[in-house]
Specification:
about 400 residues, mainly beta, Immunoglobulin-like, 2 domains, five-stranded mixed β-sheet, 2 helices, 28 strands, about 5% helix, about 35% strand
């Protein structure tokens, strides 16, 4: 009898074990390139997720509470969770089987979610606006231009104009490898008069890339966004938190041509202001006579926010007749020719948050590109990023 009483006393002194589900199953089966979000219901001071590789070596893969699993390869994976807590420590093993997709994924863009260009000389032309077109119409035209193997350029206009697109699967972050490529129309000039400048001068209209993971799994680009920090991200001349507003032009306003540059037909065409106290204009030129303000937009002004890169154009002639737009080193769209594979490809590992801190994203579902420079080059007009298509480098071509 004394022994039974002692055992009951021992049990009563133990911490109470929660009789609720951890919220994570023992086994999962998912298709490759499809994310699995694991959220433990137990709270703890620290979460340690470890996974074994093909050789059996176990390494820490995350210390966040939620773990996002996404694999580009088929196979079986052993995942171990350790919740460190002085009251209720817990450990759990989960096994994940990754199978091949039933229908082969496309290597190319399958959907455009947003098309919001800033004013520019190619806006309303690439793609073409037709009287009565709505935002939905222009979104469809943008999708038709750059989805699949289509290779039709769309313009994002001046600084801030953007497009958001995705694939029929999540793009996996494969360590040490480029994950996707985006095509533009940049080129190197055959003649760069200034030998002190880099040889990669020509037409570089750099676009900044952002990525997002569909954490709420609603299929919409409404989750947190992260910038891919390119070569200029931490340069002193780069401005973060930049904001610019463009104002719809008055069609009755008299044009103010430039006597020194006859091809510039209106130097005060579309006014803009920014949060740095600067104001200016998107000028109109004789080569593009259509309206530059997006004609399907009913608002009186357009505002864009993001990171602004330093101007990259140099008037090598000294008289406004020959501009060279010099490419930045890496990490931007429409910055180097498409043939420069490593210069036009992107790595999800470059992602940073709004404070510039590195962020680990196992995969992403949405990619956004926006024009990263606010500059005008005389008769060449404003600098505007153009792109034609994108590829997931981890999906084989058909």
């Amino acid at each position: 009898m004394a022994i039974v009483i002692a055992m009951l006393a021992l049990v009563a002194c133990k911490p109470e074990i929660p009789m609720v589900s951890l919220g994570i199953d023992d086994y999962y089966a998912v298709a490759r390139m499809q994310p699995l979000v694991l959220h433990p219901e137990f709270e703890g001071e620290r979460y340690i997720w470890t996974m074994s590789d093909r050789t059996g070596h176990e390494s820490v893969v995350s210390t966040e509470r939620d773990f996002i699993f996404c694999s580009a390869d088929t196979g079986a994976y052993a995942l171990h969770l350790q919740i460190e807590d002085p009251v209720n420590p817990y450990e759990h093993d989960t096994y994940i089987v990754v199978w091949g997709e039933e229908v082969a994924y496309s290597r190319y863009i399958t959907r455009v979610y947003e098309y919001c260009p800033a004013p520019g000389q190619f806006v309303n032309v690439m793609p073409e606006y037709e009287a009565g077109d709505t935002y939905a119409d222009m979104l469809k035209k943008a999708e038709e231009s750059i989805s699949g193997t289509n290779d039709v350029l769309i313009s994002l206009g001046a600084y801030g104009g953007y497009v958001t697109f995705g694939f029929d699967h999540s793009v996996v972050n494969v360590p040490g490898e480029y994950d996707f490529k985006i095509y533009g129309n940049a080129f190197y000039s055959a003649e760069v008069p200034n030998p002190d400048n880099p040889n990669s001068g020509g037409s570089a209209e750099p676009g900044i890339v952002m990525v997002s993971f569909d954490r709420n799994r609603n299929g919409l680009p409404d989750d947190d966004w992260y910038e891919l920090a390119g070569s200029e991200y931490r340069k002193p001349a780069t401005v973060r938190g930049y904001e610019i507003t463009y104002y719809r032009p008055d069609p009755m306003k008299p044009a103010t041509p430039n006597p020194q540059t006859p091809s510039v037909t209106d130097t005060s065409y579309i006014r803009f202001t920014d949060n740095g106290g600067r104001s200016g204009y998107v000028a109109k030129n004789a080569f593009h006579t259509q309206a530059y303000f997006p004609q399907w937009v009913e608002a009186a002004n357009l505002t864009f926010r993001g990171t602004k890169l330093a101007d990259n154009a140099v008037d090598e002639s000294g008289n406004g007749t020959y501009y060279v737009l010099y490419a930045y080193d890496w990490g931007y769209v429409d910055n180097h020719p498409n043939e420069a594979e490593d210069k036009s490809s992107f790595n999800i590992e470059w992602a940073v948050d709004a404070q510039g801190r590195p962020v680990h994203l196992p995969c992403v579902d949405f990619i956004r590109v926006y024009t990263g420079v606010n500059q005008s080059c005389g008769w060449l007009g404003e600098t505007s990023t153009e792109l034609s298509r994108a590829e997931d480098l981890h999906v084989e071509e058909d």
